[in-house]
């Protein structure tokens, strides 16, 4: 027996409690609408709460159906079409080392790292 089946009475009680609570709130909003201080907002709420109660029952129904027959697994062999994703940035190649400005900047960074390492020691 699965754990879901063992918990099913508790879930049913929770659904009933939620649905009854929603229907009680609908009745309360209806009595507020009928009172002298009631407004159409109370009428709107009185019509909404039964839908919430119905949603509690519907959600439980879908939960039980999915528990008994889970959806089929998607195919793992599907591929992403070429050109759909952006290209990855390329790594620096040996041709980039021919740039004198880049070599000078890298030498400057190496010198900074060396002086920083000497200062921390």
Automatic annotation (TrEMBL):
<keyword id="KW-0812">Transmembrane</keyword>
<keyword id="KW-1133">Transmembrane helix</keyword>
<feature type="transmembrane region" description="Helical">
    <location>
        <begin position="42"/>
        <end position="61"/>
    </location>
</feature>
<dbReference type="GO" id="GO:0003677">
    <property type="term" value="F:DNA binding"/>
</dbReference>
<feature type="transmembrane region" description="Helical">
    <location>
        <begin position="12"/>
        <end position="30"/>
    </location>
</feature>
<feature type="region of interest" description="Disordered">
    <location>
        <begin position="70"/>
        <end position="101"/>
    </location>
</feature>
<keyword id="KW-0472">Membrane</keyword>
<keyword id="KW-0238">DNA-binding</keyword>
<protein>
    <submittedName>
        <fullName>DNA-binding transcriptional regulator of glucitol operon</fullName>
    </submittedName>
</protein>
């Amino acid at each position: 027996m699965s754990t879901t089946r063992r918990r099913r009475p508790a879930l049913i009680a929770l659904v009933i409690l939620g649905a009854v609570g929603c229907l009680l709130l609908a009745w309360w909003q209806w009595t507020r609408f009928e009172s002298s201080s009631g407004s159409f907002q109370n009428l709107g709420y009185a019509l909404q709460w039964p839908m919430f109660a119905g949603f509690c029952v519907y959600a439980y129904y879908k939960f039980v159906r999915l528990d008994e027959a889970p959806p089929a697994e998607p195919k793992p062999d599907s591929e992403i079409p070429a050109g759909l994703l952006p290209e990855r940035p390329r790594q620096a190649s040996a041709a980039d080392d021919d740039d004198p400005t880049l070599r000078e900047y890298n030498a400057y960074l190496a010198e900074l790292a060396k002086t920083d390492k000497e200062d921390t020691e």
